[in-house]
Specification:
alpha+beta, D-amino Acid Aminotransferase, Chain A, domain 1, D-amino Acid Aminotransferase, Chain A, domain 2, 11-stranded mixed β-sheet, 6-stranded mixed barrel, 7 helices, binds 2-OXO-4-methylpentanoic acid
Length: 355
């Protein structure tokens, strides 16, 4: 059946896959809900958006995205409380960021009303896919690709904005072991490191696969010019706890302005925990580890939530970080999840209810 809201055409799926899903055993990002949101940019403007059954799509082999990687994306989550109410977390931050990413990749800005109407329409249709309970969520992946069939190296005239949704539990099932980058770089001054550009992630796959061969799941990237400052891990921003104080790198044109990172800074203030936002060297962290002052490292991100980093290696030196009783990572994770799941007070107005 197709009906129209003010701006969106909605075609609902005749069948649902939901009964085939084992919600207790989800592999991150492999299963998608029954519907998706699609909006095309043609003739210089975004056309009427559609919600339609999740399905494969066809593109010409010459579509620019396949040749030049003109593509950006976002990561968001929807949560359900015990009464069945559905919430997003700080969605305006994702909306602002996708347009910032698009601008850097010479792509057109997406309209705010379409972004929110798309999210709302999808979440209403697929709300059964959001399981209640802390630890469950629906991961939302808005993205934009250059669809114009033309292979000259210039920005496309046609694009497709889409949102697909995938039920999610945790991204990492155990504490993460990381290698500190000594040779490869994720981003450079004046580059696209701050953007959620698809190519930023692809460029990490090879160095990360080398790290994985050595038993590390992720890399903590360092600055490209000296490899001495700690920046971010591929899927998360990173926080270091030295004594009772947290340190995280400032965002820059090389580092992603993470929504969870931003929220951590506010929660640290609320919880009375000092968090210094400043450049932090590998040497400082190694010295702190040797002196027993490095208490924790953790990563923050939408998919990763707050993931403990239990060991790091740099220049052949391995440092294990023993688990501690009064873990900030645990405290922040609980505090954050309780806000996201409508269990605790939302004093910063971060929740966005889908009504
Ligand atoms: C997210 O946390 O949403 C991300 O985009 C990271 C992704 C590579 C899973």
């Amino acid at each position: 059946m197709t009906h129209y809201t003010d701006k969106i055409s909605i075609e609902t799926s005749k069948t649902s896959k939901i009964d085939t899903v084992d919600f207790d055993n989800l592999d991150f990002g492999r299963l998608f809900t029954d519907h998706m949101f699609v909006c095309d940019y043609e003739d210089g403007k975004w056309q009427t958006p559609k919600v339609m059954p999740y399905q494969a799509m066809t593109f010409e082999p010459s579509a620019r995205v396949f040749h030049y990687g003109q593509a950006v994306f976002e990561g968001m989550k929807a949560y359900k409380d015990d009464e069945g109410k559905v919430f997003l977390f700080r969605p305006k931050a994702n909306f602002d960021r996708i347009n910032k990413s698009s601008e850097r990749l010479a792509m057109p800005a997406f309209p705010e009303n379409y972004f929110f109407e798309g999210l709302e329409a999808l979440l209403k249709l697929d709300s059964d896919w959001i399981q209640p309970g802390v630890g469950n969520s629906l991961y939302l992946r808005p993205f934009i690709i250059a669809t114009e069939p033309a292979i000259s190296a210039s920005p496309a005239n046609n694009y497709r904005f889409m949102i697909i949704c995938s039920p999610a539990k945790s991204y990492y099932n155990a504490p993460v072991r990381v290698l500190i980058a000594e040779e490869y770089s994720r981003s450079a001054d004046g580059g696209v490191g701050f953007a959620k550009a698809a190519g930023n992630y692809a460029a990490q796959f090879y160095p990360t696969s080398l790290a994985q061969e050595k038993g590390f799941q992720q890399i903590i990237w360092t600055d490209a010019s000296t490899h001495s400052f700690l920046e971010e891990a591929g899927t998360m921003n990173v926080f270091f706890r030295v004594g009772d104080k947290l340190i995280t790198a400032p965002t820059s044109d090389r580092i992603l302005d993470g929504v969870t990172r931003k929220s951590m800074l506010q929660l640290a203030e609320d919880l009375g925990i000092t968090c210094e936002v400043r450049r932090v060297t590998v040497e400082e962290i190694k010295t702190a580890a040797k002196e027993g002052e490095l208490k924790e490292i953790f990563g923050t991100g939408t998919a990763a939530v707050i993931s403990v980093i239990s060991a790091f290696e740099h220049k052949g030196e391995l440092f294990e970080i023993p688990e501690i009783e009064d873990s900030y990572a645990k405290l922040f994770k609980k505090t954050l999840l309780e806000i996201q799941h409508n269990i605790s007070e939302d004093k910063h107005n971060w929740r966005y209810e889908i009504k």
